[in-house]
């Protein structure tokens, strides 16, 4: 149940009282969640979106990269503490094409969070009944292994985990 999930994957909790402090050690995960790597935005017009971030907002914007194995073109917008990933469909079976059919003007597609051990994360998440959208990690836009977690198991958000 929920309690056993919390006990197997929760950080150490420290409680402060007026007289003393003590910590309750709870076993930690075999893997750790890291920083937010990027927020991905599906866009119907990639050149227009690049221009917004580069020419209007003054951000540093990467060149367009095709990722046929994921069915997308990607462009990264550098921010001070993270990145935006602009996604545009590549090919008819692109998951971004179906997203844009439902969201004509585009919108947030997923968030990407780094993990220190993607294989351990997969094993533990499967035990906790979190659906992973592929049997094995695929190589993502940064050349590192990635997996996606089912949005229905993540409060409506498609979550990408990337090996740090």
UniProtKB/TrEMBL annotation:
A GO MF term: metal ion binding
PANTHER family membership: METHYLMALONYL-COA EPIMERASE, METHYLMALONYL-COA EPIMERASE, MITOCHONDRIAL
Annotated protein name in UniProt: Methylmalonyl-CoA epimerase, mitochondrial
Listed GO CC annotations: mitochondrion
Chain's role: Methylmalonyl-CoA epimerase involved in propionyl-CoA metabolism.
Domain of life the protein comes from: Eukaryota
Classification via InterPro entries: Glyas_Bleomycin-R_OHBP_Dase (IPR029068), MeMalonyl-CoA_epimerase (IPR017515), MMCE/EMCE_epimerase (IPR051785), VOC_core (IPR037523)
Reactions mediated catalytically: (R)-methylmalonyl-CoA = (S)-methylmalonyl-CoA
Family assignment from sequence similarity: Belongs to the methylmalonyl-CoA epimerase family.
Provenance organism: Agelaius phoeniceus (Red-winged blackbird)
Keyword set includes Metal-binding: yes
VOC domain segment(s): 35-164
PROSITE patterns, alphabetized: VOC (PS51819)
Keywords: Cobalt, Isomerase, Metal-binding
């Amino acid at each position: 149940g929920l309690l056993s999930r919390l006990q197997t994957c929760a950080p150490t909790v420290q409680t402060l009282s007026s007289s003393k402090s003590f910590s309750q050690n709870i076993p930690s995960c075999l893997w750790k969640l890291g920083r937010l790597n990027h927020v991905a935005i599906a866009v119907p017009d990639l050149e227009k979106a690049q221009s917004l971030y580069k020419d209007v907002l003054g951000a540093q914007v990467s060149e367009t990269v095709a990722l046929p194995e994921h069915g997308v073109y990607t462009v990264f917008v550098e921010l001070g503490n993270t990145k935006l990933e602009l996604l545009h469909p590549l090919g008819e079976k692109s998951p971004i094409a179906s997203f844009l059919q439902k969201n004509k003007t585009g919108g947030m597609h997923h968030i990407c969070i780094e993990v220190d051990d993607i294989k351990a994360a997969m094993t533990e998440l499967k035990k906790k009944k979190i659906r992973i959208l592929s049997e094995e990690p695929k190589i993502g836009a940064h050349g590192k292994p990635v997996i996606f977690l089912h949005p229905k198991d993540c409060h409506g958000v498609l979550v990408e985990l990337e090996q740090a």
